[in-house]
Each structure stands twice: as C-alpha cells, then as structure tokens.
Amino acid sequence: MVDLDKLVEELSQLTVMEAAELVKKLEEKWGVSAAAPVAVAAAPGAAGAAAEEEKEEKTEFDVVLAETGPKKIHVIKVIRQLTNLGLKEAKQVAETPGAKILEGVSKEEAEKAKEALEKVGAKVEIK
User: Fold this and answer.
1) What does the pLDDT look like over 13-37, one tens digit per residue?
2) What gap in Å lies between CA 1 and CA 99, rounded to an integer?
3) 118 pLDDT exceeds 80?
4) What gap in Å lies between CA 107 and CA 14, rounded to an integer?
5) How far is CA 116 from CA 84, 102, 109, in A?
6) Phi first, then psi: what are they for 106, rounded to 5°?
7) Which of 56, 81, 87, 114 fits a 20 to 30 Å CA distance from 29?
8) Per-domain residue ranges of the chain
9) CATH code reported for the domain at 73-127
10) For the chain, what is the HEC assignment?
C-alpha cells in the first residue's frame, strides 16, 4: 500500500517544470488528458459569498500562461527574466499551456509580469 501523505509531500516539492513533465508522462502512460473539466455551477448565494471573501483576503497571486502566442522566442526571454530559469526550462514552460510562471507573488508583481508577457504576445491569467 502506498503512503499517500508521503506521496503528497514529495509531489509538493516538484518545480513547475518537473510537474509539467510528470503530467506528460502520466498522460502517456494512462492514455488520458489532464485538461481541466468544466465545473458545474454551485448555488449562486454560496458561490458568490465565497468568491467575494476570496477576493478580499487574497494577497498572493499566481501568473499562469494561457497561450504563448506568435512570438514564442520573445515569451521565452521574458519568462527567463521573470524566473531566472535556464533556456531549456523556460522553453518547456512556454510550451506548456496552463504553466505557472510565478507563484505566490504580490498583486503588483503579478500585474507587472502579466504586462511584460502580454507585450510580447502571450496570453496570461492571474489567479
């Protein structure tokens, strides 16, 4: 039997690049896609209240690459500037839709990163 707590702890220590590689390997092995399923809408009152509380309390944000766009090389350069990743790792991030560029950063830093990436043609989300 697998110790699930130990497994969760080990997976939590993966970098973004390692997590992306793990996803690819699992997709190949199991023949599935890790694309996020569409969520079913919850009751309006409960969802609205929870979302409002989250907006007020949220102080850390993630910058997520939605789409690289036509200028992949420029996007890779910006990713390298923002993260200090090597060329190979930055390229892998740029080629992985949904990859987190930055995690747990301030709203201001997330906005600056989003602006820099969008300036070179990438589509970016702040979560």
Assistant:
1) 877 777 777 877 877 787 776 655 5
2) 31
3) yes
4) 24
5) 15, 13, 11
6) -70, 160
7) 87
8) 73-127
9) 3.30.1390.10
10) CCCHHHHHHHHHCCCHHHHHHHHHHHHHHHCCCCCCCCCCCCCHHHHHHHHHHHHHHCCCEEEEEEECCCCHHHHHHHHHHHHCCCHHHHHHHHCCCCCEEEEEECHHHHHHHHHHHHHCCCEEEEC
pTM: 0.54
CA distance 126 to 104: 11
Query: Given the structure tokens 């079913």, which residue do they identify?
Result: 40
Q: Tokens 């201001």 label which residue?
A: 108
Token look-up 């590689």 returns 21
Q: Which two tokens stand for residue 2?
A: 């697998």
- What pLDDT is recorded for position 52? 57
CA separation, residue 124 to residues 13, 76, 82 (Å): 24, 13, 14
pLDDT digits (tens, 9 = 90+) for 34-74: 655 544 455 555 555 555 555 566 788 888 888 888 888 99
Q: Phi, psi at residue 95, to the nearest 5°?
A: -90, 0
Q: What is the pLDDT of residues 84-101, one digit of tens each?
A: 888 888 888 888 888 888
